[in-house]
From TrEMBL:
Coiled-coil residue windows: none
Protein name per its UniProtKB record: 3-methyladenine DNA glycosylase AlkD
Gene3D superfamilies reported for this sequence: ARM repeat domains (1.25.40.290), Hypothetical protein (EF3068) (1.20.1660.10)
CDD domains (UniProt xref): AlkD_like_1
InterPro entries: ARM-type_fold (IPR016024), DNA_alkylation (IPR014825)
Length: 221
């Protein structure tokens, strides 16, 4: 896939007026072109309409290596679009991308939209997600919690419990928030599981509040 053409298309739409606000929103950690999500998606749609070549991991890695954040978003968009192509053999490279300049904006796409489907297809990928539970890196922990975010009835409850219970004491906002988020989402599928889990001793107030956001009329404490 001619991702250098995509790079040119995105650079041509650089918007200095949006750059500073977008960088500020992300705590000035990353440079931006200043292209907001709707316009970026429109550019990608136009690009894909004309592009007929296959998309390889090398293409994603090239985009991901570029400094401006929009290129990482573009790489993730394409990785999601072609997610059925990725196998356990690709996992180490995909994780390397996810953990390059990681923040919630990229991790929260990689976890449920790329690693999630892969783990459903391959048990080895799922086992790697389990290993991430015990890593010190908070973004690895967040991946291990959120990769099942969209599983609904396919949720591995034992693995979800393990991911949460082993990370109750991190005192990390992004870990606690992830715990609350996955519980809130799973409550739409299995409310009684989440109601019971919210009673867990040691669950942070943030996780409990987020997890029970739509269950307030049923929580008895």
């Amino acid at each position: 896939m001619d991702v250098k053409k995509l790079e040119r298309m995105l650079r041509e739409k650089r918007n200095p007026q949006n750059q500073l606000p977008m960088e500020k929103y992300m705590r000035n950690q990353f440079p931006f072109l200043g292209i907001k999500t709707p316009e970026r998606r429109a550019i990608l749609k136009e690009f894909l309409k004309e592009e007929r070549e296959a998309f390889f991991l090398e293409d994603a890695e090239y985009l991901y290596s570029l400094p401006e954040r929009e290129f990482k978003y573009a790489a993730i968009h394409l990785l999601e679009k072609f997610q059925k192509e990725w196998t356990g053999k690709d996992l180490s490279r995909l994780l390397a991308m996810a953990l390059t300049e990681p923040w919630w904006d990229t991790i929260d796409s990689f976890a449920p939209n790329i690693f999630g489907p892969m783990a459903l297809r391959e048990e080895a990928v799922k086992e790697t997600m389990r290993v991430l539970i015990y890593e010190e890196n908070i973004w690895m922990k967040r991946i291990s919690i959120l990769f099942q975010l969209k599983y609904k009835g396919k949720m591995d409850e034992d693995l979800l419990k393990e991911a949460i219970l082993k990370n109750l004491d991190t005192k990390e906002f992004f870990v606690d928030k992830a715990i609350g988020w996955v519980l809130r989402e799973y409550a739409k599928t299995k409310e009684e599981f989440v109601l019971e889990f919210l009673k867990t001793e040691g669950l942070s107030s943030l996780s409990r509040r987020e997890g029970g956001k739509h269950l307030s009329d049923k929580i008895l404490w």
